[in-house]
Design brief:
The chain has 366 residues and is an alpha/beta fold. It has 12 helices and 13 strands. The protein is 45% helix and 17% strand.
């Protein structure tokens, strides 16, 4: 299967190096930067860019609308939390944007791993109940996208009567659904509804275990693809790459008060807990998966890095492909320059190697 590359765009230059509370100016939306950032990904042969979500971030649907106006091919993976917009309305919003972007929309479902962040938007459900609500939410969304007749639905969290949308997605059978979540309740919901299950950058052996776990939960008639999120740190030589990695770690620690400061409190999100547990056991896994930045930041998001030359990082990414991952979400700590470097130096190498494997598979299958 071909490999898919996803980047990430923000509305103003920011990363772990400068995104602590209070470090961003009030004018957090820079339309020209969004345009430049999106165009850099398109020129770099990324397939999509993720637009993230938090209780204080700009609206992802609007960001995608702006970025799509300045690109032609690039897709937009819009992070979306169920529970704050009615599923019928969310389905129509996404279907409408799918038409205006000529089928370049996908939705990344993030149920929410932090009670505090959920409560900022008025959501007081606990973790497991949020996933049960997500299950109902996605059931309704998918039916709105695909049903030719009005339907009723009555569940624990949602009740609709004669639900119907005249606007259907341009993409068939419906807009792709990506899904993130590392807990037990997440696996069943993601396996039931999503097209792509997203994993954070864990060691290869752990990724294989997670893939097997999700596949075991699949309904009989479903197939699913897998994504992994990583943070490449490149250098002309391996030594320069490691020097850059240590400099980035030092800058992050300085932002947080120095290396001796106690790490952030243990997060609620199971995915973050897993990254922290890996970081506590070893700084390096496999060939070049580096974990100290996850430890320094409390693993708030995908924070494990691949460190090396472009050729070495490409080789490590292909190892994930060989493990069963077909979507690679890569973003840097210097977001725009790194995206340009990935497009020029890493993506072509990975695509070439994956194409070689595809040809070999066809030959063996004859």
């Amino acid at each position: 299967m071909p490999v898919e590359f996803i980047g990430l765009i923000r509305t103003k230059p920011a990363s772990e190096l400068n995104s602590l509370p209070g470090s961003l100016a009030d004018d957090i939306i820079d339309p020209a930067y969004v345009r430049e950032f999106a165009q850099a990904h398109e020129q770099g042969d990324f397939d999509k860019v993720l637009i993230g979500y938090s209780s204080s971030s700009p609206d992802g649907f609007t960001v995608a609308t702006h970025a799509a106006a300045f690109t032609e091919r690039l897709g937009f993976l819009i992070a979306h939390r169920p529970g704050f917009v009615a599923p019928t309305l969310a389905a129509r919003k996404a279907a409408t944007l799918d038409h205006f972007t000529n089928g370049r929309i996908a939705v990344h479902i993030i149920t929410g791993g932090s009670d505090a962040d959920q409560q900022r938007d008025g959501d007081w459900l606990d973790h497991d109940n949020r996933y049960r609500r997500t299950d109902e939410y996605l059931e309704i969304v998918r039916r709105v996208w695909t049903s030719d007749t009005p339907f009723d639905y009555e569940g624990e969290f949602y009740r609709v009567k004669d639900a119907f949308s005249a606007i259907k997605p341009l993409q068939k059978p419906h807009i792709p659904l990506y899904f993130g979540g590392a807990s037990g309740p997440a696996v069943g919901v993601g396996a039931k509804h999503s097209n792509v299950y997203a994993l954070w950058g864990e060691p290869i052996a752990a990724v294989k275990e997670r893939i097997a776990q999700v596949k075991a939960a699949l309904p009989p008639d479903r197939s699913i693809r897998f994504s992994v999120s990583l943070r490449p740190i490149l250098g002309v030589t391996e030594e320069q790459a490691w020097e850059r990695a240590r400099n980035i770690l030092g800058r992050i620690q300085e932002q947080r008060g120095g290396a001796k400061v106690a790490p952030p409190a243990r997060p609620q999100a199971v995915g973050s807990q897993r990254l922290l547990d890996f970081a506590a056991k070893s700084e390096i896994y496999d060939k070049r998966l580096w974990t100290p930045i996850a430890a320094a930041t409390g693993a708030a998001g995908n924070t494990t890095a691949l460190v090396g030359t472009p050729e070495q990082v490409a080789e490590a990414l292909v190892d994930y492909y060989d493990a069963g991952v077909t979507t690679l979400l890569i973003r840097g700590f210097d977001p725009l320059p790194d995206a340009i470097d990935y497009g020029r130096e890493v993506i072509p190498l990975v695509r070439k190697e994956v194409a070689k494997r595809e040809r070999q598979a066809v030959t063996v299958g004859r």
